Amino acid sequence: MTPGRLSSYSDLEAALLVIIGAYGNGQARRNALGSRYGAVQGLVEQILNTGKVPDGTGTDPDKLKKALDNVYYDVIQEVTNEVIERMK
Fewer CB within 10 Å, N- or C-terminus of the chain? Predict the structure, then answer.
């Protein structure tokens, strides 16, 4: 599953998608993230190691909620589309 185009996501949204496995691991993830690999992977590591979402000044719950809303919407939309296709 690779929801949407990567360019439509912020680094935080892309990091959340990485955490749920949308971009694979290892070289597949590097290929999928391209030039954004370092920034996105850095966020992934910060989130997983600290349990917090960095925003330059600490954590911002509203920023996380907006990012999660965007990611979940896209994931749900993609799964819905797959189910509909299979039902045809």
Answer: C
How many angstroms separate the Cα of 24 from the Cα of each of 27, 30, 39, 61? 8, 9, 16, 27
Please give the average pLDDT of every successive group of 10 residues along the chain, which has 88 residues: 72 87 90 93 88 62 74 75 80
Instruction: Kindly provide the residue ranges of all beta strands, DSSP E only, lying in the chain, ordered along the sequence.
Output: none
* 31, containing H or E segment: helix 26-33
Contact at 8 Å (CB) between 36 and 61?
no
Please give the Cα distance from 1 to 82 (Å, whole number).
10
- Cβ count near 14 (within 10 Å): 26
What pTM was computed for the model? 0.71
Per-residue DSSP letter, 37: H
